[in-house]
């Protein structure tokens, strides 16, 4: 049974933008948790940020899908100086490999069970 506090990012009125980051981590966790916390603070301050979902596999593959109102909002996130520094750290220390896919969402809908 899934806890009720866990919910996907709700559907938004399209179009909007999604960035799908898929990565395989190294064993080096030095500074990762602190940087991740700081990146979360920065991205949430972006007025066009809509939310994100993240999951990982037991084998070490991690996937994060972030949603933004438009490409300008995503570009602002990409170009943030602290985010740029974190990306460099990721390539140097934290990731064996990763891929990034950016797409425009054309359709969006959702479902929430009414347990009442």
Helix and strand composition category: alpha+beta
Strand order of the largest sheet: 2-3-1-4
Q: Radius of gyration, rounded?
A: 15 Å
Rounded to the nearest angstrom, the distance between the terminal CA atoms is 17 Å
CATH topology: Alpha-Beta Plaits
Strand composition percent: 25-35%
Shape: globular
General description of the model:
The protein is of the alpha+beta class. The chain has one domain: Alpha-Beta Plaits. It has three helices and four strands. A four-stranded antiparallel beta sheet has the order 2-3-1-4. The longest helix is centred in the last third of the chain and has 14 residues. The two termini are 17 Å apart. The mean pLDDT is 94.
Give the topology.
Layout: E1 16-25, H1 32-44, E2 49-56, E3 61-68, H2 71-79, H3 81-94, E4 95-105
